[in-house]
Structures are given as structure tokens and as C-alpha cells.
């Protein structure tokens, strides 16, 4: 397609109407300017988790005007959607779930007819808006007036008691994978990129932040003791990245383009802990090209945040459980930052290709860690991930160990396990090892440039790497086993286990303590870093049944007191300790578990610990029920939903 002949917008509109990707040679590229309108999702990737029919009409911009009501726990107001329509399109279909729709109007304020279809437990409902069909391709605006429900799955409304300060309420959103539709009526598919803007009105003593440019850093006075905050995101993004935080917030800079937001009483600790962020952005750019989003800030949330981190553009959301006091858990920042390329720039077209987001990001994360902290620490983290992968491969049905998934009819949340992360990263490391780092890095950088602001599928990835890395080299093609890696379960034979020499003394000490029943005082714990300590606590005997008792109370007691594990502050180490202690029904660890499970709601910690208790028969189940009854009110719907399915609703 010749761009000159049409002009950008009409070329894109035509391509949209045809349902093909426009301007494959003119968007993205090395250019830093994002397309004003994203290319249409290609016909090669049909997202079974959206009702949207982007080939008929698709949303290209969302403008929110919402008021946060902390008493009612609602966001209410309007979403003005900018649509690109095919010839004769007479309707647009949006995704909604658990929303109250009051009206839909056109740009002139005339009401439009709409209907809401049957409710699907996973996808929610289609909201179909009808309008008079126009000739030719077109743009039109619709204005949806609506309100969220208090139990919107994307939103958590925290009482003051659930915050660090204890004085003010708090609200945050979590859109990935398909939860944005519970607070924004739009086409909620990762392949349908949209720009967005927002006006958010909230009580004047709170600060509003979003994953966008902050146009009003101090907020603007609004009636009834409120303030309005305005935002704009000019880069087209998948809707799961629209994100909002409201609370008593303060900001501290790391350098002139990075910094951290959090509650005032937590600011100094977060600023110190996460200061390496500035160096990480520089390291990431050196690896795979310019950071294209302007600022890179972090928002450290209250402890109920259900994930480690969420890569909301310009503003990563993070759990406070990474504030360890010694910067030992900052790889999480490297991970979320890496998503600014893999995920936010080049995006999985559907959740079946989640590995393209998380596998690339886990690989890139480790390269950032290597740049900033050196090869040794990076390899330690590779080994921890590799060992986790071996466990995951054993515990999952074979189909779920493929990189390319088929999640049709399933909640994408269920299909998202660590395979995408750790098998994905192992795959890219295998390619790097075979092709050589220089060649591999040149390809990866080109991949981000060529595909910037586009949806990506596994098949497109294979085409890209064959065209730009393999280039017809038959021996390389055979050595890589590309199709086997992405389409077959398990690990292909060319996978290479990473080896860390830093773990050798750890393994010696683990055998001495766990197997030969030596004293805990012989463990050189204080000389180890967090990753070595994680390695030690995750040591397990080979070839024993998962529920075998291979440790005595006396050994566990020696470990707990000698290593002072009851007072451990590092969340990863508390977790690793509890996993081994609870699996042996070590009663003194139950208070530690109770404290941990009622003071943070990160699903990665919470769910496995409840599972471990659950596996321990009547003893464990009674503990699990008791602790969950106390903890559940703290948890985000995402975490509570997962634990409900295991323990049951208290
Ligand atoms: N994008 C994910 C979080 C996510 C995945 C949310 C799927 C909803 C559905 C984020 O980048 C992530 O992977 N977070 C990890 C931390 C990371 C260091 C592995 C997490 O939350 O544990
Ligand atoms: Zn991730």
C-alpha cells in the first residue's frame, strides 16, 4: 500500500475496513513517533475473549470522565469512544462485565439504541450500540454513560485501615488480562490498541495517578471538596494497560525521568530500595533501543496488590513486598520495565500468545540484571527460574506446558502459569546460545522496531525470526527447533540448564543440614545473598513423594531459631521458609504464616501457601480455613477468587 496516495488516516481506515494490518512498512520502524491510530488487528489472530468485531467498527480512542465515590465504591460518568467504521457499519460491539449502562449518545447528544447480550461467566456481556449506517469508511464518536459496581473485579476499594497511613481510603485498578471491561466499556482485546485520555474527579485530599501523561500535577479544584485530574496517553496501547490509582500519595524522583509514588510514610524506604530503576532504564535502552514512553515511574501499592508487578505504561504498579531493605528483589522492576518493549510495544495479539509478553520480558529482565549487577547474579536468577520451571513442568497437564496456548472457553487467568515466563525465557536463551549474542541482540532490537505498536502472534514471531535471524541457514534452522519449542509440550533437547557456581557451597550446606542432619549453625547464612538463601530453602531430596516427611521438628526448630526465620523480613525468604515448614506441619511456623497471610495479598505467595496447608489433611485445612477467614477481607478480588476456589468462601 502506498501511504502517499491515501494519507495516513484514510490508509489506516481502509486497512481497518479490510481487516488487515496497515502500513506494515511505514509504522513502527526506527521512528519514535507512535501512530496516531494503531494498525488494525490482523485476521490471523482472532481473540476468543472479546465480543468486539473490529473489522466492522473498532475503538481507537477512549476518553474517560469519571468520578470516584468512595462511599458507594463506584466510578461513574462517561466514556467517549472514537470509532473507526467500515462501509455500511451499523453497529459497534463493546465488552462489558458487571457495568451499569445508563445511556449511549452520539456526538450531537442524540440517544443511540443499544442492547446488552447474555452474560458469560468469563467474558461478560456484549454491549451493542446501533447507529445509522454511513457510506464509506468513517470516524464517529459515541458517549457511554455508566457506572461501575462495588465488586468490579478490576477495582479494589481499600478502607483507610487497609493502607499504611490508616487515614485515607485508596483505590487501584488491575486490568490484565480481561478485567478492564469491568470498569471501562470498550473493546477489551490486546490486539485492539487505543489511545486514551481521562478526567478523574476524587476527594481533594487524595492524589490521582494513571498510566499516562499527567496533565495536571496538582489537580484542579472541583465542586464539593473535590479535585479533578487530567491525563493523556498518546501512544496506542492495549486496553489492559489503562490503569488508575487514587490515594494519599507522595512522589520522589530517582533522576529526571524516573521516580516512585507511594504513601508518604513509605516513601523514603521505596526511594532507597528502588533507586536502581534509573540505571535499569539506561541499561535496557542500550540493549534493545530507545525507551518510547517518556517517563518511567513506579507506584508502590498497599499490601493487597495481587501481583508482584504490573507493567502499566509510564507507571509500573508494584507490590510493597519487594521493599526488602537491601535491594535484593529489584529484578521485579527490571521485569516490569522490560515490558515497555515486550508487551507494551509489541503485544500478544490474544492471550494464547501470552508467552510473547512474558517470555520475552523474563529474558530481557535477566539481561538488564546482568548489565546492572553482573553475570553472576543474573545466572543465579536463571537457575532459580529453571528449577521452578522443572517443578511446573511436572505439575501441569502436557497441553499447558506449550508456549502457544489454546485458551478458548477458558478464563485466560487459568492458563497463565510460569511456563510462559520460564520456558519462554529458556527458549530465547537457547536461541542466543546457538546464534551467538551479537546476532541475537541485533535481531531482538529489530523485532521491537519492526513490530512496535503492533499485535504479535506466535506465527508472526516465527516468520520474523526466520526472515531476520535464520535467513535460510538450514543448519541454524535445524539446531534451533523453533516449532518444537513453541508448539510442543515440555522442553526440547537443545534446552540448556544454567549453572551457577555461587550455588555450589549452598548445595553442600544443604546436603549437610537436610540430608546428613548437621547443625544449622554450620550454615554460612550470613555470607549469602538472597538468591543463595532462596536456593538453600528450596532444597528438596530427590525421588521422594511430595508429601513425604523428611525433616523433623527438631531440625526445623534448629533452622528457625538459628537463622531467625520467625523474624525474617524478606518476603521471598518468608515464603520459602513457610513452604518447607508448613509442609511438615511445623506448628511454631503457623504464627508466621498467619502474620504473612494477613499482611499482604500477593497471589504468588498466598495461593501456594494455602495449597500447602490444604495438602496437609485435617490439620492444614483447619489452619487454612481459620487464617483465610481473617485474611480474605484484605485480599483483592483476583487473589480472593483463586483462594475461594481452593479453600471455599469463609
Ligand atoms: N503482566 C504481569 C502480571 C500479570 C500477568 C497480571 C497475567 C495479570 C495477568 C507482570 O508483568 C508479571 O509478570 N508480574 C510478576 C512478577 C515478575 C517479576 C515475574 C508477578 O506479579 O509475580
Ligand atoms: Zn510480566
From TrEMBL:
Query: Looking at the keywords, is 4Fe-4S present?
Result: no
Among Pfam families, the record links this protein to: Leuk-A4-hydro_C, Peptidase_M1, Peptidase_M1_N
Q: Which residues form the signal peptide?
A: 1-22
Q: Which part of the chain is the Peptidase M1 leukotriene A4 hydrolase/aminopeptidase C-terminal domain?
A: 500-647
UniProt keywords, alphabetically: Signal
Recorded hits in InterPro entries, A to Z, give:
Aminopeptidase_N-like_N, LTA4H_cat, M1_LTA4H, Peptidase_M1_C, Peptidase_M1_dom
Write down what this protein is called. Answer: M1 family metallopeptidase
Per the UniProt entry, what species is this protein from, by scientific name? Brevundimonas nasdae
Amino acid at each position: 500500500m502506498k501511504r502517499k496516495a491515501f494519507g495516513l488516516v484514510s490508509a489506516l481506515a481502509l486497512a481497518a475496513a479490510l481487516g488487515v494490518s496497515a502500513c506494515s512498512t511505514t509504522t513502527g520502524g526506527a521512528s519514535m513517533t507512535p501512530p496516531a491510530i494503531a494498525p488494525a488487528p490482523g485476521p490471523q489472530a482472532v481473540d476468543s475473549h472479546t465480543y468486539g468485531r473490529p473489522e466492522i467498527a473498532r475503538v481507537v480512542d477512549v476518553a474517560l470522565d469519571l468520578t470516584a465515590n468512595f462511599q458507594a465504591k463506584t466510578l461513574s460518568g462517561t466514556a467517549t469512544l472514537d470509532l473507526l467504521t467500515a462501509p455500511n457499519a451499523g453497529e459497534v460491539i463493546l465488552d462489558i462485565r458487571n457495568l451499569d449502562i445508563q445511556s449511549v449518545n452520539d456526538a450531537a447528544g442524540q440517544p443511540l439504541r443499544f442492547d446488552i447480550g447474555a452474560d458469560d461467566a468469563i467474558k461478560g456481556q456484549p454491549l451493542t450500540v446501533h447507529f445509522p449506517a454511513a457510506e464509506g469508511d468513517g470516524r464517529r464518536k459515541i458517549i457511554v454513560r455508566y457506572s461501575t459496581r462495588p465488586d468490579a473485579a478490576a477495582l479494589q476499594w481499600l478502607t483507610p485501615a487497609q493502607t499504611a497511613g490508616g487515614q485515607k481510603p485508596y483505590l487501584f485498578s488491575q486490568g490484565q488480562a480481561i478485567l478492564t471491561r469491568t470498569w471501562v466499556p470498550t473493546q477489551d482485546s490486546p490486539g485492539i490498541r487505543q489511545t486514551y485520555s481521562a478526567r478523574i474527579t476524587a476527594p481533594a485530599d487524595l492524589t490521582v495517578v494513571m498510566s499516562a501523561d499527567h496533565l495536571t500535577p496538582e489537580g484542579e479544584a472541583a465542586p464539593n471538596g473535590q479535585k479533578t485530574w487530567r491525563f493523556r496517553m498518546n501512544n496506542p496501547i492495549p486496553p489492559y494497560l489503562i490503569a488508575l490509582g487514587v490515594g494519599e500519595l507522595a512522589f520522589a524522583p530517582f533522576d529526571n525521568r524516573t521516580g516512585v509514588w507511594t504513601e508518604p510514610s513509605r516513601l523514603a524506604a521505596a526511594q532507597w530500595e528502588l533507586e536502581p530503576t534509573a540505571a535499569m532504564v539506561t541499561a535496557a535502552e542500550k540493549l534493545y533501543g530507545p525507551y518510547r514512553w517518556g517517563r518511567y515511574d513506579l507506584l508502590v501499592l498497599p499490601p493487597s496488590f495481587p501481583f508482584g508487578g504490573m507493567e502499566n505504561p509510564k507507571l509500573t504498579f508494584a507490590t510493597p513486598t519487594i521493599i526488602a531493605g537491601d535491594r535484593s528483589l529489584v529484578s521485579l522492576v527490571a521485569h516490569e520495565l522490560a515490558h515497555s518493549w515486550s508487551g507494551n510495544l509489541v503485544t500478544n495479539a490474544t492471550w494464547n500468545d501470552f508467552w510473547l509478553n512474558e517470555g520475552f520480558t523474563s529474558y530481557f529482565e535477566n539481561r538488564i540484571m546482568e548489565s546492572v549487577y553482573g553475570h553472576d547474579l543474573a545466572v543465579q536468577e536463571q537457575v532459580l527460574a529453571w528449577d521452578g520451571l522443572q517443578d511446573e513442568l511436572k505439575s501441569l497437564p502436557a497441553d499447558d506446558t506449550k508456549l502457544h496456548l489454546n485458551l478458548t472457553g477458558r478464563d485466560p487467568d487459568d492458563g497463565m502459569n510460569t511456563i510462559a515466563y520460564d520456558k519462554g525465557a529458556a527458549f530465547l536463551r537457547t536461541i542466543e546460545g546457538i546464534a551467538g549474542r551479537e546476532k541475537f541482540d541485533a535481531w531482538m532490537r529489530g523485532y521491537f522496531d519492526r513490530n512496535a505498536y503492533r499485535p504479535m502472534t506466535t506465527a508472526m514471531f516465527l516468520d520474523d525470526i526466520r526472515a531476520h535471524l535464520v535467513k535460510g541457514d538450514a543448519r541454524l534452522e535445524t539446531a534451533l527447533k523453533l516449532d518444537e519449542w513453541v508448539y510442543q509440550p515440555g522442553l526440547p533437547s537443545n534446552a540448556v540448564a544454567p549453572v551457577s557456581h555461587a550455588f555450589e557451597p549452598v548445595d553442600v550446606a544443604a546436603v549437610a543440614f537436610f540430608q546428613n542432619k548437621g547443625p544449622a549453625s554450620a550454615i554460612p547464612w550470613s555470607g549469602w545473598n538472597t538468591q543463595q538463601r532462596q536456593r538453600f530453602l528450596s532444597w528438596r531430596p530427590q525421588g521422594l513423594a511430595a508429601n513425604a516427611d523428611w525433616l523433623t521438628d527438631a531440625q526445623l526448630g534448629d533452622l528457625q531459631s538459628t537463622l531467625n526465620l520467625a523474624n525474617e523480613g524478606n518476603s521471598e525468604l518468608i515464603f520459602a521458609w513457610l513452604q518447607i515448614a508448613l509442609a511438615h506441619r511445623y506448628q511454631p511456623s503457623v504464627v508466621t504464616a498467619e502474620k504473612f497471610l494477613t499482611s499482604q495479598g500477593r497471589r504468588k505467595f498466598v495461593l501456594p501457601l494455602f495449597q500447602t496447608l490444604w495438602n496437609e489433611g485435617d490439620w492444614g485445612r483447619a489452619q487454612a480455613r481459620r487464617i483465610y477467614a481473617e485474611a480474605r477481607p484484605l485480599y483483592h478480588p483476583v487473589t480472593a477468587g483463586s483462594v475461594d476456589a481452593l479453600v471455599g468462601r469463609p
